[in-house]
Amino acid sequence: MARRTRGAPDPRRAASATRRARSTETETPPQEVAAALLITPGAQRESMTLDTLAPDPSFDPDTVDQAVLDALAGNYRFIVWGGDWCVDCQRQLPPFGAALAAAGVSDDQIDPIAVTKGPDGKEGPRVDAYDIERIPTVVVETPDGEEVARFVEDADVSIAEALARDLADLEAAT
């Protein structure tokens, strides 16, 4: 076997590097892979985001009844299931996110959960445990984990107003 001089390229390594370079030329760019993963049916990932819950920048808190904001401002946890691909979520979650922000609800009180469409319905974290079939779904819990209000898909009023109505009924009953 021929001896290689120090510093001279090893032809086996050069060939390996060339193969690696060729294989990366045909790989899908990371952004496309990430986008494909977000819409792949059956995929369940805790790390998915729910961007549609970001507060609507055009939201005017003066257009919301103060009683609604006061009801949302209670000591509650808001678990929000939705999908950035969902038309109902795109329409309803940005104003809800803005209402939560206007009510002073902290981020640690909000648990956004992104779901995907699967062959047997919605798939994602805690979908089965909370019996999530339609989105958006918002579950309101006490600090002890007791469910005190739920919004599912649509109502005659906004998500914030529907939940505030339920929470006001709860307060009136206690």
Write up what this structure looks like.
This protein is α+β, with helices and mostly antiparallel strands and 174 residues long. The protein has a single domain (42-173), classed as Glutaredoxin (3-Layer(aba) Sandwich). It has helices at 11-25, 30-39, 66-72, 87-102, 159-173, and strands at residues 77-82, 110-114, 116-118, 121-123, 137-141, 147-152. Strands 2-1-5-6 form a four-stranded mixed sheet, covered by helices on one side. Strands 3-4 form a two-stranded antiparallel sheet. A hairpin with a 2-residue loop joins strand 3 and strand 4 (121-123). It is globular, with a radius of gyration of 24 Å. Residues 1-47 have low confidence and may be disordered.
Comma- or semicolon-separated keywords:
16% strand; globular; two-stranded antiparallel sheet; 4-stranded mixed sheet; 174 residues; Glutaredoxin; alpha+beta
